[in-house]
Amino acid sequence: MSMDTAKFKNASPMAGTLRMDRMAHIWCPGCGIGSEVNAFAEAVKRSGIDPDKLAVVSGIGCTGRVAGYVDFDSIHTTHGRAIPVATGLKLANPNMKVVVFSGEGDITGIGGNHFIHAARRNMDIVVICNNNFTYGMTGGQVTPTTPHLAVSSTTPFGNHEYPFNLPFLADAAGATYIARWTSMHSRNLIQSIEEALSRKGFSFIEIVSPCTTLYLRRNRLGDGVDALQFYQENAVLKHGADTREVDIDFQGKIIIGKFVDKNKPTYSEALDERCVKVVGDDYELYGKTVPEREAEEKAEKERVAARRAAVQAEEEKAKRVVTKVSAKIPVKSSAKKAPAKVAKVTKASAKTAKKAAAKAPAKTVKKAVAKAPAKAVAKKAASAKKTAAKKIVTKKAAAKAPAKKTRK
Ligand SMILES: Cc1ncc(C[n+]2csc(CCOP(=O)(O)OP(=O)(O)O)c2C)c(N)n1
Ligand code: SF4
Ligand SMILES: [Mg+2]
Questions:
Q1: What atom in ligand 2 is closest to the CA of residue 62?
Q2: Backbone CA torsion sign across 144, 38, 201, 283
Q3: Contacts of 49 (CB under 8 A, 6+ apart)
Q4: Is residue 133 a contact partner of residue 147, using CB atoms and an 8 Å limit?
Q5: For 247-295, what is each residue's pLDDT tens digit?
Q6: According to CATH, what is the number of the domain 3-272?
Q7: How far apart are CA 164 and CA 160, in angstroms?
Q8: Residue from 25, 83, 106, 216 whose mutation best tests the ligand 1 pocket (most atoms within 8 A of CB)
Q9: Which of 14, 122, 124, 326 is least surrounded by CB atoms within 10 angstroms?
Q10: Which of 209, 257, 235, 212 has the alpha carbon at shortest distance from 35?
């Protein structure tokens, strides 16, 4: 790594939460995992959790690689075994916040049995599940969540199976916090992860996410931007929705929100309660009685709250600086005078751009739309159309002209 690259990486706002020395990452362009990891890192920062008391566990798969990019203690464990490893970590070190970040194949396919039992026990861990409807890393096979009729490498004629509805599965098994977002809903996702990190019990967050290379391409659903647009248009926010009614159909509406948030003794709390009843108040775990451990937990909670308040104060300060700077930026007098006209022109050019876009080759227009304002898009679309027309003429002429040479 050159000095400049190192400097650039260290200056990243994510330095300290993500391992900048390991960038660039392996995920494909448009894949949802990158933005989810960013949201996770941001949530950890805001939560006030001591990074030394946080562990991240991943299984195997594209999502499983998350463990290698976070700058916390982490384990990249075997396929389907992230939850049992996380359970072991939590039991051995109850003061640790333990997060599982893995794919739906890993967590609910090969690891499905561990998933339902950890939820049933209300194990005090956070499970973040990247649901991209496919086994991304191994070539796009069908998974337990692939929508009915979707194409995968093992269901080339459309999936004949019916998928799991993950929030319902988690709910039926006993999870005490259940939410679903898409990789487009970064703010909600940050908030939700922060909330899950601050509570006790089995928290499950599903993130619907595009696997651009295998799922989208095979189903002819466009690229990462198309997926985000689809999520924006088809996600329906319904906090408290009945988990029985949040199935995902192929290209249907996606119900998002926080569905479940309830209190129930965690596995360790229930164990303590039983043991105190049988052994008496002298019962100890790790050499400490229940009240001693509770006092420790309370003190840690106060430290986390103080750190969280400090982070919030920093953010507020940064916001004030931005507001002050933007207040100083002079506004052009022409922009001040004619807002109505500008709005009209923009509307008109958008219409022209839309018309042109409908006629010109899709790829070129998409690129232009992403980068340029409406007027420029119309121009680009028109020139793309001209080029396309030229090509057709050249092709026709070539077809008419006698072949000079025959290829051997
Ligand atoms: C015991 C075992 N079986 C199968 C595999 C092969 N394998 C590796 S990753 C993977 C699929 C992972 O899918 P998912 O969890 O959905 O993650 P994604 O790649 O989609 O993020 C499979 C089947 C393995 N590594 N170990
Ligand atoms: S194969 Fe799919 S899931 Fe894996 S990195 Fe690429 S887009 Fe993401
Ligand atoms: Mg997957």
A1: 4
A2: positive
A3: 97, 197, 304, 307
A4: yes
A5: 999 999 999 999 999 999 999 999 999 999 999 999 999 999 999 999 9
A6: 3.40.50.970
A7: 13
A8: 106
A9: 326
A10: 209
